[in-house]
Amino acid sequence: MTLTYKKQKLNKTPSISLKEYESLKPYLKRYRLQYLVGFLCLLAVDGGQILIPQIIKQATDLIASGSFELSQIIRLSVGMVCIMAVISTGRFLWRYFIHGSARKIETTIRATLFDHLLSLSYDFYQKNKIGELMARVTNDLGAVRHAISMGLVALVDGTVMAVAIMVIIFIQDTRTAFFAILPLPIITVLILFFGKYVGNKFLKAQESYSAMSDTVQETFAGIRVIKSFVKEWWFIDKFALTNDEYRRANMDVVKLFGIFFPLIAFLSGLTSLIVLLIGGIRVTEGLMTPGDLVSFFSYVQMLIWPLMGAGFLVNTIQRGAVSLGRVNAVLQTRPSIMSPENPIVGRNSPIAIAINNLTFSYPGGTPVLKNVNVIVKHGTMLGILGKTGSGKSTLIKTLSRTVEPPENTVFINGVDVRQWDLIALRSVFGVTPQDSYLFSDSIKNNIAYGLERYDEEFLKKVAAFSAIDRDLATFAEGWNTVIGERGTTLSGGQKQRVAMSRSLAVQPDILILDDSLSAVDTETEDRVLEALLNERAGKTTVIISHRVSTLRRADYIIVLDKGMVVEEGTHSALLSIDGVYARTALLQQLGGKR
Fold first, then answer.
1. Which residues contact 565 (CB under 8 A, 6 or more apart)?
2. In a 3-state reduction of DSSP, which class is residue 540?
3. How would DSSP label each residue in 247-304?
4. All domains of the chain, ordered by start, with CATH?
5. What is the pTM for the complete model shown?
6. Rg of the Cα trace of the chain?
7. Which residues lie closer than 8 Å to 146 by C-beta, 6 or more apart?
8. What percent of the chain has pLDDT above 70?
9. Strand boundaries in 47-96, DSSP class E
10. Average pLDDT taken over every residue of the chain
């Protein structure tokens, strides 16, 4: 039975659709009260702003009449101060409620996105770059937050102000208002034209940011190799290219705004000029009072913000839709490997691992494993020998469903791995890979990583099994020495032994050592294996290695070549035949003598 392993790849150019905002409904509903209070405060601010020109109108007409009392002006001034106090308080409150709610929504979505990313399968991370995913978790969510805060504010504020001002100026003087709004249709057309292009430009900018993030992440993750090959200059040039591409993509957006906003400002300024000309004539004809003209002029100036805000709104909403589409593309990706609806609990089987006619392929390639059959009894040690690329690591990955084997081919404790609950299945294993990943934390915390609670004496015992305890004296702070990211401050052998202690600490039912002694010397290897045999007596262990010296203690050994089991048996039985195992042992023995 053959299975082709499918990798999941995100669509890097999602369609720009406002329907993406439908995914925010649950979050907006949760904070609807805060948004409601915020918008009420915003309306209070708008009401106060609309009243101020009316007060200025009264004051102007009083002064123009030539007969007024100072108390009248003081009374109007006090009223204006009170209105300004309401405006200031309202501005603080709407920012607090609306921006605060948007920040909470951003935090919730980021947490949801992070949780979802951790649920996705191994193949997803093979296909999608880490820098790209980081950009979606950080930069894209910032754009979404901006859309549901200032975007909504621009929509409500601009609509209310525009409608209210239009009603007032038409009531005050229909003729002057009619001429003043003549540029508005042109502005509307420009806004629609602008919105069509800004989304695509911003999408390119976001993709450029992702590419730049990829370069930075890859550079710092591989800094050890870069420095050892003196290739800093190559990555400096590569970053310069991606950085410049990001600049160009953003400059394309800036150019659009550089044309759009000045043009809108120019057309908006025409309305002021029209008011000045038409209104001035009507004042001289006695059809408008000086106060009417001043307030009319103030309202037209206030109308500029809704017009400018329309362009801001289009930009913000389009940016938010693009970014939200990129975030939703991740959230809509389902794990390719999941627990079944009705998982089966592992049985008390005498067979810990059973592999029956397993054939497995990665996408676009020939089978990595071909008709593999293996039986591992409880309490025994299985050794696996094979050249690089023979399928050893892939075989191990099928056991814990890191990659998905076909049905009825891989069994743990008598149950098909595809019928296990995924968490329960993986809890059976303690795996130490050859390329051991350590976290930027203390040595003690790295060893205790898989434990909820631990006793320090137990950790020391576990450290002794891997022989990492003898190196603790060389570390500045012993147990509490904080190692660099990915364990860069440790040697290869030290990293492997810390990782091995981490696997032993969880006391797994099945321990898997995937060539995890390749970087240690033979003396240390002998000490580790001897301790391992004593500690794991009666427990199932699988050891993968290129060294025959590592595998000689195994109860049973299989030899993989080109994905097939070409030899199997005990150490002594395999040495007695002229096969791959015996020839490998002879070559390694001769190499050791040299």
1. 372, 373, 374, 558, 559
2. strand
3. HHHHHHHHHHHHHHHHHHHHHHHHHHHHIIIIIHHHHHTTSS-HHHHHHHHHHHHHHH
4. 102-331 (1.20.1560.10), 351-593 (3.40.50.300)
5. 0.75
6. 35
7. 102, 316, 319, 320
8. 92
9. none
10. 84
